Amino acid sequence: METRKSTDRIIAPFISSLPLGETSVGVIRSKDFAIPATLSFYIAGHNGMPSTKSLDKNIVRLKASDTHEVLAEALPPRNDTAVKVTWNLAKFAGKTGYFEATDGDDRAAYAWLAFGRFDPPVVKVPGAAQYRRTLTAVEIAAALKITELEPQILSLLTTKETETETRIAAAKALPEISANPAAHAQPLAAILRDVTAPGALREAVAAVLQQDGSPATLSAFIEAINAAPQKLALSLAKSLAASRAGAESLLAAVAAGKASPRLLQDVNLVERLKVSRPADLDARIARLTANLPAADMAIEALLKDRIRSFDRTKASPQRGQKVFQTNCAACHSIGGVGAHVGPQLDGMGIRGLTRLCEDILDPSRNVDAAFRYNTYVMTNGDVLAGIPRREEGDTITIADSTGKEVQISKSKVKRTVQSNLSLMPSNFGEIIKPDDFYDLMSYLLAQVK
């Protein structure tokens, strides 16, 4: 057993062949279980040095209990960070099978694999049960607003040894159970500034602090944005811009050279700033971005480069499917696998390479009106953004950028701002490395039915 980080930045228990030495080999099998229609899990590890040809000796498989036939299989991603694998098992659903992992590589380095985070949990990961119970307890405490558990929730959040997913849940729970969340601004700000903390946790903490306009919290935001990678910096900036004080602080930081002016070229951040209404916004943005290449020029250059560099003979649709599962399946589906926040992508390949590149790298260029988002300013100062899904009585249900459905009370909405933009992140050109992007294009181009 070991704890390991995944591509979604969550740290969780994994079954691994690494702790006992990479030269060791062996096979481990789960107990028999009823095969679900879809099974996802995370896998990390290697099959030799990254620069060498994979020998495919380390592998995980789903096998039929009666015939031992291989029904599905996956190789470790040749990466220490676990990636998500999703198997469509509809044609085997209800039959009995088992999960088998083989470490057949006895080399001294880059010769291990690890797996965990099964959904549904057909494979029991030792050590995960207590973690899951604690996570569930935090979620229940938040749902029932059990204020007596505020000290325990805060302790889980601020303890580095707590699993990341539980810490994120604790951050989201704190405003629900605390009469005065601002009283915890100091320890929360410490997490925000901690460059070693997982990005997903810092984003969750930023959402809690976004309405705290105290100088200490605003300073923590700017410090975090200044040191964060572009993707995280942009996410933190959006939280900071949710209040007028935060928006003013962000613009002042850019003017002082403490935050990148490129942040102000993101259309979604500018939309958030407009909702908060800082003084002379348009003029300030124009002045702060005057010496930068226009955002649309940068996007056009990126589009031309990616289209020109795509080589169908080198790109792999198999690898591209994994890129899709990691980056896209939270909002889109293919073949019934994935979520339905954004458009389903079956048959997407008929659009051709150029349009697919535009849809991914410049998502607001051709956004369907049905998938534009709204920004909701709440009476308590919170700012929520998402695609409207349905209304039932006083409740509006929206889908946020992670694919999660969020319920809003109409009576607590102070103002609604409709956007012409896509909820899809506009920085996939930075998030997805070029080789992975070309594999994703190969996979999407193959979707012609």
Helix proportion = 25-40%
N/C terminus separation: 42 Å
So how many helices? 15
Mean pLDDT level: 88
Largest sheet: 5 strands, antiparallel
Based on the coordinates given, report the CATH architecture of the largest domain: Alpha Horseshoe
Task: Identify the CATH class of the largest domain.
Answer: Mainly Alpha
Number of strands: 17
Task: Give the DSSP E fraction (strand runs of 2 or more residues).
Answer: 15-25%
- Kindly name the structural category: alpha+beta
Shape descriptor reads globular
Show unreliable segments: none
- Strand order across the biggest sheet? 1-2-10-5-8
The CATH homology group name of the largest domain = Leucine-rich Repeat Variant
Computed Rg:
23 Å
Number of domains: 4
CATH topology of the largest domain: Leucine-rich Repeat Variant
Descriptors for this entry?
4 domains; Leucine-rich Repeat Variant; single chain; 5-stranded antiparallel sheet; about 450 residues
What can you tell me about this protein's structure?
- This protein has helices spanning about 130-145, 150-160, 165-175, 185-195, 200-210, 215-225, 230-240, 245-255, 265-275, 280-290, 295-310, 315-325, 350-360, 430, 435-445, and strands at about 1-5, 10-15, 25-30, 35, 40-45, 60-65, 70-75, 80-90, 95-105, 115-120, 335, 335-340, 370-380, 385-390, 395-400, 405-410, 415-420.
- The protein is α+β, with helices and mostly antiparallel strands.
- It has four domains: about 1-125, Galactose-binding domain-like (Jelly Rolls), CATH 2.60.120.260; about 130-295, Alpha Horseshoe (Leucine-rich Repeat Variant), CATH 1.25.10; about 295-365 and about 425-445, no CATH class; about 370-420, Roll (SH3 type barrels), CATH 2.30.30.
- The chain has a five-stranded antiparallel sheet with strand order 1-2-10-5-8. Strands 3, 4, 6, 7 and 9 form a five-stranded antiparallel sheet that branches.
- The longest helix is centred in the first third of the chain and has 17 residues, at about 130-145.
